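Here comes a specimen:
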Amino acid sequence: MADEQVLQHVIDVARRHGGTENVEGPIPPPKIGGNFALDDSVIDARNYGMSLWGRTAKISTKLPDGELKDYFLKVVALGETGRLMIEGEFESLKAIHAVSPSFVPEPFAWGRYRKEGPGTYFLLAAFREVGEQPPDPIKFTARLADLHRRSVSPTGKFGFHITTCVGKLTHITDRWEDSWEVLYRDQLAHQIKIDEEKNGVWPEFQHVCRLTLEKVIPRLLRPLQSEGRSIKPCLIHGDLWDENTATDMNTGEPFVFDAGSMYAHNEYELGNSRAPRHRLSNKSYIRNYKRNFPVSEPVEDEWDARNLLYSLRFNIGCAILIPGCNQRNVVFDDMTELCKMFCPEDLRIALGSEEGGKDGEVHELEEEEEEEEEEEEEEAID
């Protein structure tokens, strides 16, 4: 593939991953091409697909017994970050494969290249031919819910045994927590810190981030594990979006790849599906998933708010990883909405504390609340 084609493909993927608008048209099929030096057991090796952070290839081989077998190879040359990415993906695929063998490519090995310098790492897995992306919603959500339902945390807690990544951003996963509230709060705080280092200080944003961590998360997540309620730590893929899912061209069955797993509240898996830039935001995916895995208590009145809360981590990740996208503004608006719902007075005080620049936002907040009250009164009269 020519350099300009590679660049354009990267730009297209970044736009699909970091945009805010509804997407149209089919996802382009994986690109194939390239020239590689081969050893005697390798029949063919070609670029397959595209990674924003490395290179991917289809390796066709002839095994000692004469069997022909294809493999998928991913190579990342990002030093220690690359090691965390590759090892995290390998362990994630291994964990998912142990529960649902046909739902992910079987991982075989990962390691460091000796000839490419100390900073280049590889992942070798079974090759799966990518078909329709994303897969059929009925089949796909049934398989996803089955993974969540049948998986068992080895400790009975939330977390994972190593660090995993979304893109090249690390999760805080290499620990075990009884409280999902605590783990999610620390993970979101971790990303907020990275965002500030990457994109600079924005005082208003800092205010709503603080309120989200201190007020919104306890209000929304603590009830999941209190007053006799409980949630199961479920093994999740961790970075579901259109181009990490596919229909297998040979079997017609859905599968996932490029995972950054942990044991989490199952509903967290759907946070990335909220964004209209993803085809997985189609309501048929959410609706069919709920048919296979019931909503956690408290039920419908708080499911959507939890989904909005879970979407924050994915959108902050986009703001960090994709320069020029407006996801930081999206996150600010979404956090503000959550604060209006669960700590409006704290939000009013926080926005009013900024000298000289926040009166308009406070006034706007008050007007919105008055309009909502008027609408409720009109509905009551009707």
